[in-house]
Design goal:
Rna Polymerase Sigma Factor, Chain: A; about 65% helix; about 0% strand; mainly alpha
Length: about 100
Amino acid sequence: MLAEALARVALDDRTAFAMLYEATSAQLFGVILRIQTDRAHAEGCLQDVCINIWRAAQGFDDERAPPLTWLASIARNCAIDSLRRRKTGVSTAPPLPPCRSATPS
């Protein structure tokens, strides 16, 4: 069921994605919360996970890993990355353009 949904998500099937989300989001959120204990950050991370799943669904291979294992690894990696960014103060926002110095003409 999950492998079929991922195959359909790889074809940009939004209905399949909604079904996949409904079937797995609670478990994935649990994985994230075990690592990223701040609930607000964990919720943001779950959103990132969903985006990553949408983008990476073509790379899923059910011969290499069961669907839930693959999804949980995406969630785990996202939670770890999010935690590291918070600890180091690194933002994911794009850098600001360089300032132009005002020179007299």
